[in-house]
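Thought: the user wants the 3D structure for the chain below. I'll pass the sequence to the structure tool as-is, report back what it returns, then summarize two notable features.
Action: structure_tool
Action Input:
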Amino acid sequence: LACVVFALEDFGTAASVISAMVFHELGHFTAIGVTGGNVLNTSSSGVGAKIGYSSNGLSRRREILVYLAGPCAGAIVGMIGHYFGFIKFAQLSFFMSLLNLLPAMPFDGGCILASVLPYDKSRTVLVISGVCVGFVLCILGLYFVAVGKNFTVFASGIGVFACLVGKSSLQ
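Observation:
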């Protein structure tokens, strides 16, 4: 997402997106440390960032806490940014937090959904959920494009579909 915004918007928007992503990931880093996990690696792509960590047998509840920490950190820094007048940063941070809570992979909401479902059912539910979320994001994104807004939501929908196709081709 950051790459799309970077290419299409002004520097302030790109800086805001990158800052929001950093705070989001810092939320995950903090939760991993607090719950007893160890960060193994980090990577980023056009869809976002990913932190590889060893859970050391974390309970399901603690694992969900790790997934929720990123969107919560984003919402908190968004509120702080809004208070200090960084409106674009606040809006992007809130948007990214909400987007990350959608129940589709690779978003945190999809990881939470996978954590609460039995393993044998999680793949089917995640594929159905991902198709639904991807479809809604694409339709909403096309509406935004039609009314002259940024097409980042559309790009997010395409990203969800790309992740679904990528995962299914690997299995």
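Final Answer: Structure generated. The CA atoms of residues 1 and 45 lie 8 Å apart. The beta strands are 38-44, 49-54.
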